[in-house]
Design brief:
two-stranded antiparallel ribbon, about 100 residues, three-stranded mixed beta sheet, alpha+beta, 2 helices, single chain
Length: about 100
Amino acid sequence: METSVCGSFVADCGGDVMVYVDRNKMSQVIHNLVSNGLKFTPSGGRVTVTVTLENGQRSPRGDATSNAEGSSSPVDPLLIKIQVTDTGVGLSQVMPVTH
């Protein structure tokens, strides 16, 4: 059985961004999310991967982050948000929610 699902990738980071992650783990997570999106999206549906930068929250301890000059200043970190969305049935339809 052949199905047709449209896919797209949107990156809105304003330029190159370097991150330090476990490459294998991150690849596995993204692969699993996209794979599930494709698996549960009917023919004619859409799976989208979106990457954006967002301002993070400073920790309650007020941790300092080093700047380019080497001095420390409390700054809000940037978070990289990776979203995988699809037009499939959704988890609430696939797995019953128990309380």
